[in-house]
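hiii so um. not sure if this is the right channel but i have a protein structure encoded as tokens and i wanna go backwards to a sequence. like what aa goes where. can anyone help
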């Protein structure tokens, strides 16, 4: 179980880092949205023990928060 959780966390972090590399030509608000979604997804995964619904929900909430902070 611990190995699966570690694999999930490492994979999520890798996807976030790769996704952020594509943010070079984005607006500040767009970048904040992507970062918020990434952080929210990781937080959702951690808080729900790797649940897919928790990860997606965290990413959605984080994206909205990041978008609003970028205003």
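sure thing!! here u go:
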């Amino acid at each position: 179980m611990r190995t699966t959780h570690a694999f999930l966390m490492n994979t999520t972090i890798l996807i976030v880092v790769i996704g952020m590399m594509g943010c070079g030509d984005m607006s500040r608000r767009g970048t904040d949205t992507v970062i918020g979604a990434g952080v929210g997804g990781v937080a959702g995964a951690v808080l729900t023990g790797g649940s897919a619904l928790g990860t997606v929900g965290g990413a959605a909430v984080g994206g909205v928060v990041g978008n609003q902070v970028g205003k």
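oh and Residues 29-71 form one domain.
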